[in-house]
Structures are given as structure tokens and as C-alpha cells.
Amino acid sequence: MIKIDQLVENLRRDGLRVTNARKQLLSALLDSKKAYTKDEILNQLKSKGYDPITLYRNLNAFDKSGILLRLKDEDGKDRYLLNPERKHYHVILCKACKQVEPIQSCTIDTLEEFARSKGFKEVSHVLELHGLCEDCS
Ligand SMILES: [Zn+2]
Ligand SMILES: [Zn+2]
């Protein structure tokens, strides 16, 4: 598991400004097995003086830098997961407790190749798997 200091170091090397507020956001998301909504993250950080706009901005900055995985809930809400290694991967999201289970392989690459063979450019994909985890079923 990546440590917060290492993560901050990596982000700085990439030219991202890591303020105290951003550090707090990182630690809130780090080592989490659950994907949180903006509101849930805000609730965690409210006591540290976070307001919705700060959170919105910092989430956007992290999202842009590629260290966030954004998931869609069944009800269409965005949920965030830290992706410190910036890997391309997918997860199964538990409908009940919002715990996630990483999927080791992505089998959609062949479909992307197909799209490219049809002349599509800038091909990308999103995959959402929802279910009930062992604890919840
Ligand atoms: Zn569950
Ligand atoms: Zn994929």
C-alpha cells in the first residue's frame, strides 16, 4: 500500500500543488475500501474546515491528474476512489455498503481495438459492475 508521504511526493513531482487541504483529502481517501460520494467525503472533512467549493476544486484537480477513479452508483451518483498508481482498472461496487473489489484484468481492450478498426479515434470505455458483496448478501 502506498503511503501518504510517497503519494504527496509523487504528486509534487508531477507539478501538482499539494496544500494541507489536499493532503487531508488524500488521507481521507487513502486505504479506503469504499468509494465515497462528494457528500460523504465532505462530512468526513467538515471538521477540518472543508467547504463544498474547496472539495469540488480539489477533487477536480485530483481527477485531472489521474489519481482518482470515478464510479457511477446505481442511482447515478459519482463515487470516488483513490488510484495512486494511475492504473487502468475496473472494480465491482457493492450496492449496499459501497465497498469495492478490484478486477484484475480488463477484457475490453479487444473491443477498443475493434472500434479503432472501424475508424474510431480517441476510443475509451467505462465499465460499471454492481453487486452485493459477501458481507452484504
Ligand atoms: Zn457490501
Ligand atoms: Zn478497461
Descriptive keywords:
37% helix; 137 residues; globular; 3-stranded mixed sheet; alpha+beta; binds zinc ion; two-stranded antiparallel sheet; Arc Repressor Mutant, subunit A; 5 helices; single chain
Topology of helices and strands:
Layout: H1 4-13, H2 20-29, H3 38-45, H4 52-65, E1 68-72, E2 78-82, E3 90-94, E4 100-103, H5 109-117, E5 129-131
Parallel strand pairs: 3-5
Antiparallel strand pairs: 1-2, 3-4
The chain binds zinc ion (2 copies).
Mind explaining what this structure looks like?
A hairpin with a 5-residue loop joins strand 1 and strand 2 (78-82). The model has no long low-confidence stretch (mean pLDDT 92). Strands 4-3-5 form a 3-stranded mixed β-sheet, with no helix packed on it. Strands 1-2 form a two-stranded antiparallel sheet. 37% of the residues lie in helices and 16% in strands. It has 5 helices and 5 strands. It has one domain (4-131): Orthogonal Bundle (Arc Repressor Mutant, subunit A), CATH 1.10.10.10. It has helices spanning 4-13, 20-29, 38-45, 52-65, 109-117, and strands spanning 68-72, 78-82, 90-94, 100-103, 129-131. The structure holds zinc ion (ZN) (2 copies).
CATH topology: Arc Repressor Mutant, subunit A
DSSP, total strands: 5
Q: State the CATH architecture.
A: Orthogonal Bundle
How many helical stretches? 5
Give a brief rundown of this model:
By secondary structure, this protein is of the alpha+beta class.
